[in-house]
Amino acid sequence: MKIDPEKCIGCGKCRSYCTMWGGIMRFERDPKRPQRVICAIDEDECVECSVCLRSGCCPTDALYQPELEWPRILRKNFSDPLKVHPETRIPGRGTEEMKTNEVTGRFPRGKFGMALELGRPGVGTRFRDAEKVAMALAEIGIGFEENNPLTKLMVDRKTGRIDPRVLDEKVLSAIVEFLIPEEMLPRVLDVLDRVSREVDTVFVGDIITRVAKDGSVPYIDVLRKRNRFMSINGKSNVGLGWPLANV
Ligand code: SF4
Ligand code: SF4
Known about the structure:
alpha+beta
Protein backbone atom coordinates (compact mmCIF):
# COMPACT_ATOMS: atom_id res chain seq x y z
CA MET A 1 0.00 0.00 0.00
CA LYS A 2 1.18 3.51 -0.66
CA ILE A 3 0.21 7.04 0.28
CA ASP A 4 0.26 9.87 -2.23
CA PRO A 5 2.27 12.61 -0.44
CA GLU A 6 0.57 15.27 -2.55
CA LYS A 7 -2.86 14.30 -1.21
CA CYS A 8 -2.08 13.25 2.39
CA ILE A 9 -2.97 15.80 5.10
CA GLY A 10 -1.48 13.75 7.96
CA CYS A 11 -4.80 13.30 9.79
CA GLY A 12 -3.78 9.83 11.05
CA LYS A 13 -7.16 8.15 10.43
CA CYS A 14 -5.63 5.30 8.43
CA ARG A 15 -3.39 4.41 11.35
CA SER A 16 -6.22 3.03 13.45
CA TYR A 17 -7.35 0.73 10.62
CA CYS A 18 -3.96 -0.83 9.94
CA THR A 19 -3.85 -4.56 10.75
CA MET A 20 -0.23 -4.12 11.79
CA TRP A 21 -1.56 -1.86 14.55
CA GLY A 22 -0.48 1.32 12.84
CA GLY A 23 3.08 1.08 14.09
CA ILE A 24 4.19 0.80 10.49
CA MET A 25 2.90 4.28 9.64
CA ARG A 26 5.16 7.16 10.40
CA PHE A 27 4.41 10.84 10.30
CA GLU A 28 7.01 13.21 8.96
CA ARG A 29 7.41 16.74 7.64
CA ASP A 30 6.73 17.06 3.94
CA PRO A 31 10.19 17.81 2.51
CA LYS A 32 8.63 20.08 -0.12
CA ARG A 33 6.39 22.02 2.30
CA PRO A 34 7.86 21.71 5.82
CA GLN A 35 4.79 23.30 7.46
CA ARG A 36 2.83 20.15 6.49
CA VAL A 37 2.94 16.74 8.21
CA ILE A 38 2.30 13.71 6.01
CA CYS A 39 2.07 9.97 6.61
CA ALA A 40 4.24 7.25 5.04
CA ILE A 41 3.95 3.45 5.25
CA ASP A 42 6.92 1.23 6.10
CA GLU A 43 6.74 -0.94 3.00
CA ASP A 44 8.79 -3.75 4.53
CA GLU A 45 6.23 -4.18 7.33
CA CYS A 46 3.06 -3.68 5.26
CA VAL A 47 1.34 -7.01 4.47
CA GLU A 48 -0.81 -5.58 1.64
CA CYS A 49 -4.08 -6.60 3.30
CA SER A 50 -5.86 -3.49 1.90
CA VAL A 51 -7.90 -3.02 5.08
CA CYS A 52 -6.88 0.65 5.30
CA LEU A 53 -7.94 1.28 1.70
CA ARG A 54 -11.17 -0.71 1.89
CA SER A 55 -12.22 1.06 5.08
CA GLY A 56 -12.65 4.26 3.09
CA CYS A 57 -11.19 6.17 6.05
CA CYS A 58 -8.96 8.53 4.08
CA PRO A 59 -10.66 11.91 3.60
CA THR A 60 -8.47 12.84 0.64
CA ASP A 61 -8.13 9.49 -1.21
CA ALA A 62 -4.41 9.55 -0.60
CA LEU A 63 -4.16 5.77 -0.05
CA TYR A 64 -3.70 3.74 -3.21
CA GLN A 65 -2.79 0.20 -4.19
CA PRO A 66 0.08 0.08 -6.69
CA GLU A 67 0.46 -2.92 -8.97
CA LEU A 68 2.31 -5.67 -7.10
CA GLU A 69 4.99 -7.80 -8.74
CA TRP A 70 5.98 -11.31 -7.62
CA PRO A 71 7.10 -12.03 -4.89
CA ARG A 72 5.42 -9.00 -3.26
CA ILE A 73 2.04 -10.11 -4.59
CA LEU A 74 2.30 -13.08 -2.19
CA ARG A 75 1.73 -10.61 0.66
CA LYS A 76 -1.64 -9.73 -0.77
CA ASN A 77 -2.54 -13.33 -1.64
CA PHE A 78 -2.00 -14.42 1.97
CA SER A 79 -3.28 -11.28 3.75
CA ASP A 80 -6.25 -9.87 1.86
CA PRO A 81 -9.32 -12.00 2.72
CA LEU A 82 -10.96 -11.02 -0.57
CA LYS A 83 -8.04 -12.11 -2.74
CA VAL A 84 -8.30 -15.59 -4.21
CA HIS A 85 -5.15 -17.70 -4.15
CA PRO A 86 -4.33 -18.55 -7.77
CA GLU A 87 -2.98 -22.00 -6.81
CA THR A 88 -5.92 -23.26 -4.76
CA ARG A 89 -8.68 -20.87 -5.91
CA ILE A 90 -9.62 -20.25 -2.31
CA PRO A 91 -9.56 -16.75 -0.77
CA GLY A 92 -7.90 -15.77 2.51
CA ARG A 93 -5.17 -18.12 3.56
CA GLY A 94 -6.00 -20.38 0.68
CA THR A 95 -7.07 -23.62 2.33
CA GLU A 96 -10.39 -25.16 3.29
CA GLU A 97 -8.90 -27.19 6.15
CA MET A 98 -11.72 -29.30 7.58
CA LYS A 99 -14.59 -27.19 6.33
CA THR A 100 -15.51 -29.52 3.48
CA ASN A 101 -14.34 -32.78 4.98
CA GLU A 102 -17.71 -34.45 4.67
CA VAL A 103 -17.25 -34.23 0.90
CA THR A 104 -13.47 -34.41 0.48
CA GLY A 105 -12.75 -37.06 3.11
CA ARG A 106 -9.39 -35.41 3.71
CA PHE A 107 -9.36 -36.51 7.36
CA PRO A 108 -10.16 -40.22 7.75
CA ARG A 109 -10.57 -42.02 11.07
CA GLY A 110 -7.26 -42.88 12.73
CA LYS A 111 -5.62 -39.70 11.50
CA PHE A 112 -5.43 -36.12 12.67
CA GLY A 113 -5.27 -33.18 10.34
CA MET A 114 -3.13 -30.39 11.68
CA ALA A 115 -3.06 -26.73 10.71
CA LEU A 116 -0.48 -24.44 12.27
CA GLU A 117 -1.60 -20.87 11.87
CA LEU A 118 1.42 -18.59 11.95
CA GLY A 119 0.98 -14.87 12.51
CA ARG A 120 -1.94 -12.79 13.67
CA PRO A 121 -3.19 -9.23 13.16
CA GLY A 122 -0.67 -6.90 14.74
CA VAL A 123 2.12 -9.43 14.44
CA GLY A 124 2.12 -11.07 11.00
CA THR A 125 4.75 -13.56 9.96
CA ARG A 126 7.43 -13.96 7.33
CA PHE A 127 7.80 -17.07 5.20
CA ARG A 128 11.16 -17.53 6.93
CA ASP A 129 9.28 -18.50 10.08
CA ALA A 130 6.95 -20.82 8.19
CA GLU A 131 10.03 -22.51 6.76
CA LYS A 132 11.50 -23.06 10.23
CA VAL A 133 8.32 -24.80 11.34
CA ALA A 134 8.02 -26.84 8.14
CA MET A 135 11.66 -27.96 8.23
CA ALA A 136 11.40 -29.04 11.86
CA LEU A 137 8.33 -31.12 11.02
CA ALA A 138 9.91 -32.57 7.88
CA GLU A 139 12.73 -33.94 10.06
CA ILE A 140 10.25 -36.36 11.66
CA GLY A 141 8.81 -37.39 8.30
CA ILE A 142 5.77 -35.10 7.99
CA GLY A 143 4.32 -34.79 4.48
CA PHE A 144 2.58 -31.50 3.72
CA GLU A 145 -0.95 -30.97 2.37
CA GLU A 146 -0.84 -30.59 -1.38
CA ASN A 147 -3.81 -28.23 -1.72
CA ASN A 148 -2.30 -25.46 0.38
CA PRO A 149 -0.59 -22.31 -0.95
CA LEU A 150 2.29 -22.51 1.50
CA THR A 151 3.11 -26.04 0.36
CA LYS A 152 3.19 -24.71 -3.21
CA LEU A 153 6.00 -22.34 -2.17
CA MET A 154 8.21 -25.23 -1.05
CA VAL A 155 11.09 -26.02 -3.36
CA ASP A 156 11.72 -29.30 -1.53
CA ARG A 157 8.73 -30.87 0.17
CA LYS A 158 10.83 -33.59 1.78
CA THR A 159 12.78 -31.01 3.79
CA GLY A 160 10.12 -28.27 3.96
CA ARG A 161 12.46 -25.74 2.30
CA ILE A 162 10.66 -22.71 0.89
CA ASP A 163 11.75 -20.80 -2.21
CA PRO A 164 14.59 -18.58 -0.87
CA ARG A 165 13.37 -15.63 -2.95
CA VAL A 166 10.21 -15.29 -0.84
CA LEU A 167 11.55 -15.87 2.68
CA ASP A 168 11.50 -12.19 3.70
CA GLU A 169 7.98 -11.53 2.48
CA LYS A 170 5.68 -10.64 5.37
CA VAL A 171 2.04 -11.76 5.49
CA LEU A 172 -0.79 -11.49 7.98
CA SER A 173 -1.00 -15.23 8.45
CA ALA A 174 0.03 -18.47 6.75
CA ILE A 175 -0.94 -22.06 7.47
CA VAL A 176 1.34 -25.12 7.55
CA GLU A 177 -0.96 -28.06 6.98
CA PHE A 178 -0.49 -31.83 7.20
CA LEU A 179 -1.98 -35.17 8.16
CA ILE A 180 -0.58 -37.53 10.80
CA PRO A 181 -1.44 -40.93 12.27
CA GLU A 182 -3.07 -40.36 15.68
CA GLU A 183 -0.19 -41.95 17.57
CA MET A 184 2.23 -39.37 16.17
CA LEU A 185 0.63 -36.40 17.95
CA PRO A 186 2.97 -36.39 21.02
CA ARG A 187 6.05 -36.27 18.75
CA VAL A 188 4.60 -33.43 16.73
CA LEU A 189 3.84 -31.50 19.92
CA ASP A 190 7.46 -31.95 21.05
CA VAL A 191 8.70 -30.54 17.76
CA LEU A 192 6.33 -27.59 18.00
CA ASP A 193 7.50 -26.84 21.55
CA ARG A 194 11.07 -26.63 20.30
CA VAL A 195 10.42 -24.61 17.16
CA SER A 196 8.10 -22.19 18.97
CA ARG A 197 11.22 -20.81 20.64
CA GLU A 198 12.92 -20.25 17.29
CA VAL A 199 10.30 -18.28 15.36
CA ASP A 200 9.79 -14.54 15.48
CA THR A 201 5.98 -14.69 15.58
CA VAL A 202 3.11 -16.48 17.28
CA PHE A 203 1.27 -19.58 16.11
CA VAL A 204 -1.69 -21.68 17.15
CA GLY A 205 -2.17 -25.33 16.31
CA ASP A 206 -5.49 -26.69 15.06
CA ILE A 207 -6.19 -30.40 15.33
CA ILE A 208 -8.82 -31.70 12.98
CA THR A 209 -10.47 -35.02 13.67
CA ARG A 210 -13.64 -36.98 13.30
CA VAL A 211 -15.58 -37.41 16.50
CA ALA A 212 -15.51 -41.07 17.57
CA LYS A 213 -18.71 -43.13 17.35
CA ASP A 214 -19.22 -42.80 21.13
CA GLY A 215 -19.04 -39.01 20.82
CA SER A 216 -15.56 -38.61 22.29
CA VAL A 217 -12.82 -36.53 20.69
CA PRO A 218 -9.70 -38.67 20.19
CA TYR A 219 -6.97 -36.11 20.97
CA ILE A 220 -8.40 -34.60 24.17
CA ASP A 221 -6.60 -37.04 26.52
CA VAL A 222 -3.22 -36.47 24.85
CA LEU A 223 -3.56 -32.71 25.28
CA ARG A 224 -4.83 -32.97 28.85
CA LYS A 225 -1.91 -35.15 29.90
CA ARG A 226 0.40 -32.45 28.57
CA ASN A 227 -1.50 -29.60 30.24
CA ARG A 228 -2.26 -28.00 26.89
CA PHE A 229 -4.62 -25.08 26.68
CA MET A 230 -7.59 -25.93 24.46
CA SER A 231 -9.54 -23.05 23.05
CA ILE A 232 -13.30 -23.37 22.88
CA ASN A 233 -13.57 -21.54 19.57
CA GLY A 234 -13.42 -24.71 17.53
CA LYS A 235 -15.24 -25.29 14.29
CA SER A 236 -17.67 -28.17 13.87
CA ASN A 237 -18.53 -29.71 10.55
CA VAL A 238 -21.87 -31.44 10.99
CA GLY A 239 -21.39 -33.57 7.92
CA LEU A 240 -24.25 -32.52 5.66
CA GLY A 241 -22.37 -34.01 2.70
CA TRP A 242 -22.16 -37.41 4.39
CA PRO A 243 -21.85 -40.20 3.23
CA LEU A 244 -19.84 -38.95 0.26
CA ALA A 245 -16.67 -39.21 2.33
CA ASN A 246 -17.61 -42.20 4.47
CA VAL A 247 -14.05 -43.53 4.83
S1 SF4 B 1 -2.35 -2.61 3.51
FE1 SF4 B 1 -2.74 -3.50 5.54
S2 SF4 B 1 -0.72 -3.62 6.52
FE2 SF4 B 1 -0.52 -2.22 4.76
S3 SF4 B 1 -0.83 -0.20 5.61
FE3 SF4 B 1 -2.85 -0.88 4.89
S4 SF4 B 1 -3.82 -1.88 6.69
FE4 SF4 B 1 -1.61 -1.64 7.14
S1 SF4 C 1 -6.09 8.89 6.31
FE1 SF4 C 1 -5.30 9.70 4.34
S2 SF4 C 1 -4.86 11.84 4.74
FE2 SF4 C 1 -5.07 10.88 6.73
S3 SF4 C 1 -2.94 10.27 7.30
FE3 SF4 C 1 -3.88 8.50 6.26
S4 SF4 C 1 -3.31 8.72 4.12
FE4 SF4 C 1 -2.94 10.74 5.07
